[in-house]
């Protein structure tokens, strides 16, 4: 990829086009990590709805170990989101080129750590499986908060419930039969509909690639994901080091 293109994707100077392109890349990573993580630990970690609902079920059924595990995942997601906000604001106060790239660097390092944990997973499953779930939740919170801040809450990449809801809203507007009259017509935001559909498609594609990679290669499949994140973040980080 050209250097100026990579710089534009994660630089502190934002454009709508750069936000969309970065969001698509991160949706691919999130889909792959979510699907691959399920094959690794038997749990999806990209959204908190399922975890919170499972905690409620487990409390009623007195399965306190599972309640603790769910609470750990929830707190890890919250901590990841908080860490992303801290890193971005730290970079912003210092006028760093990499204010939005820093969370991606951390995410890449953690994904590599996730890959390394796989080597010991079978021998220490009791300890490492809950730790891996918490790690993946932390990664998802980190990424989702970053793209939320960078796009001013217009783009989400780690779960698709909101995407599908918004797609349905725009499709309803698109299909609405406007009748002649004095009221303004109901119109769909076609550009937003295209973006939401593309994000959904990239998350699904990432899921396919992640499931295939972890099923075929094991935990080493996390290495290309980490490499992609480092590639996206590399130029702004280099700009800061150079100056």
TrEMBL record:
InterPro entries the record matches: DUF1275 (IPR010699)
Report TM segments. Answer: 21-44, 64-88, 100-121, 127-147, 193-213, 219-238
Domain of life of the organism in this record?
Answer: Bacteria
UniProt keywords (A-Z) are: Membrane, Transmembrane, Transmembrane helix
Identify this protein by name: DUF1275 family protein
Q: What is the lineage of its organism?
A: Bacteria, Pseudomonadati, Pseudomonadota, Betaproteobacteria, Neisseriales
């Amino acid at each position: 990829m050209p250097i100026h293109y990579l710089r534009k994707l994660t630089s502190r100077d934002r454009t709508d086009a750069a936000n969309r392109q970065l969001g698509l890349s991160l949706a691919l990573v999130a889909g792959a990590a979510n699907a691959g993580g399920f094959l690794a630990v038997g749990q999806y970690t990209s959204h908190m709805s399922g975890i919170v609902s499972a905690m409620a079920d487990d409390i009623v059924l007195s399965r306190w170990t599972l309640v603790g595990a769910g609470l750990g995942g929830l707190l890890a997601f919250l901590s990841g989101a908080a860490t992303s906000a801290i890193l971005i604001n730290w970079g912003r106060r210092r006028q760093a080129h990499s204010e939005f790239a820093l969370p991606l660097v951390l995410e890449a390092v953690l994904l590599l750590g996730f890959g390394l944990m796989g080597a010991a997973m079978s021998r220490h499953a009791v300890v490492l499986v809950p730790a891996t779930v918490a790690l993946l939740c932390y990664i998802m919170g980190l990424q989702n908060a970053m793209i939320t801040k960078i796009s001013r809450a217009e783009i989400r990449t780690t779960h698709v419930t909101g995407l599908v809801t918004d797609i349905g809203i725009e499709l309803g507007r698109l299909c609405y039969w406007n009748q002649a009259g004095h009221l303004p017509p109901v119109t769909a935001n076609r550009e937003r509909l295209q973006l939401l559909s593309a994000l959904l498609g990239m998350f699904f594609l990432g899921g396919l690639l992640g499931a295939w990679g972890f099923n075929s290669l094991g935990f080493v499949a996390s290495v290309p994901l980490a490499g992609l994140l480092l590639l996206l973040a590399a130029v702004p980080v280099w700009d800061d080091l150079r100056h």
